[in-house]
From TrEMBL:
Keywords in alphabetical order: Cell inner membrane, Cell membrane, Chaperone, Isomerase, Membrane, Rotamase, Transmembrane, Transmembrane helix
Name this polypeptide is given: Periplasmic chaperone PpiD
Keyword Transmembrane: yes
Source organism, top-level taxon: Bacteria
Domain annotation PpiC: ranges: 287-390
Record field: transmembrane: 12-30
Amino acid sequence: MLQALRDKTSGWIAVVIVAILAIPFAFFGMEQYLFQNSASYAAKVEAPPSWWRSAPDVWPVRKAVWVSREVSPEEFRNEFEFARQRARAAQGEAFDARAFEQMDNKLAVLDQLVDRAVLGLAAESAGVAVGDDQVREVLQAMPEFQVEGRFDPQRYQMLLQSRVPVQTPRQHQDDLRARLQMLVLPSRVAATAFVSEGQLARTMELLGQQRDVSVAMLPAPAADTGAVSAAEIQAWYDAHRAEYRAPEQVSIEYVEITADAVPAAQPADEATLRARYEQEKARFVEPAQRLVSHILVRAPEGGDAGARDAAKARADAIAAKVRAPGADFAAIAREESDDEGSKAAGGDLGWIEGGIMGESFDQAVASVEPGVPSEPVLTDFGWHVLLVREVREGREVGFEEARAELAAAQAVTDGERAFNDLIGRLVDQVYRNPSSLAPAAREAGLPVQKAGPFVRGGGEGIAANEQVQRAAFSEALVQDGTVSDPIELAPNHSVLIRVTAHEPERERPLADVRDEVVAAIRADRAAKAVLAEADAAVAEVAGGKPLAEVAAAKGWMHMPMPGTPRGMPMPSAEANEAIFAAPVPAEGKVSAGRVLQADGSVVVYAVEKVIPGDAAAASAEERAMLKTQLERMAGDEDAMAMMRALRQRMRVTTVEARL
């Protein structure tokens, strides 16, 4: 038998079977074997090339011809840090640094980077490019870089230096260019959205709709004082057990560590300050600046020689005009310049330093003699006639001049280092004595304080802090009784906690909640009684009886409300919403209904007539505003649909281990 098996596995049939099995392994298994472990990205987006959009998603084809864009771990960390800074600024002391590190937040940030990569590949495939002129216009319009409504180069440099990580102007402009490139497609798709005149008219008719309605007000029911039997109490309790549970609660002890717990640092010595000065020397260099005005003559990109020559001739004429005796450069700039950003200001660009306006522009400005209008100079933006009005030479701030600033910065650094060292020593004590706060308290010379018992969302002081509560109710601290990791409440303000007592959520016995159950039964009986009365009235009105007559018989307040507009909070916002949700009444009929309000009262209504809004009565401004709003909504949805479609056509791979 064994010999027969050996014969069958060594013949041509076995060779064919092995060959068939080798093909899928070569196409799919080898990809995993060769490339999965060597990947260095946090996410990778792959797409078919523009010249073969139907290229199949199989390994050899994808590796050979598909284009890709990767999100590096560094790029993810930078974006995640920006997100952290935004969250801290928005939430203030409520910011939970540890909770922000959760994988859900990381994946959300990564998903945004993936969307950018998808849009970037789509833009490249569509041949989208963003020029220097557009980057400059957007940059100078960004409000964070403006002072008194004007772009300020010094503020621009300062804000870039304060970012984490620090960005150079070139890096920031490249990043801005990439973002603009990604926005071109969705913005163009959104711009194609339109609203037909029929849609606009129908929307205006709905928004301007009025209804003739009459309402009757049933007051909140009087308190029910009737007897409640033991059987009713037991039945209610059994049906609503979840409502009669005592919430989970904990008690904690804690050590609060602030900057006050750290002795004031000694002033830094000369050697330390000089070493810091050398490390940060670039920060104490003031670059050369020039106060520049210009007149721009745009040279059409891709234009023919005639158009380029015409632009040059116009620039020559303007240069001659401004160089004439007594010429007013600012007035001529307001009349002639093609730069809408500076034209109204007489061509004033403010103080310019290298690296902000682009290399070609910087070189042109550096070559101009101060106080003398230049001959036309060609840059990436077009032809410029430049006027350098003033020059500030660059200089290096010396050590002595920077000493005070260095000492202040070093004091902050030393204070933070001392605080972190103290936290480190406390953590060491916790590791040695994980079930007691006393050693850590002795190390810091701080008292062990107590708080609780408190429930989720309750407590006072430290116990009310969201981060403290998250830790106090965590399974690890509750079950183990160990000391927490340091919980950062604010810079140089942390706390260590330990759960000393825990009482889980539990069912409260009927004997303890009997009075609450009786009150709930009586409130339910009263509410059902008033709703039953309202339902009977609705049935009478629907049967043809006027609501005014029904209300008079019951002694209810009745109020006719002809021409009630949509959204009017009368008799209440809930009632208005119900009135406009009621069906249009048939000829000679009414649409009746009732609404239970928050205070226990009930509104019974009868819609008698529906009056459509008059679209023709709207002003041109109102029509234009509504049309813009509807088109923006439709455009946003179109852009989102495009984004979803693009992602479906591409292959996205994420590596959570690198986040």
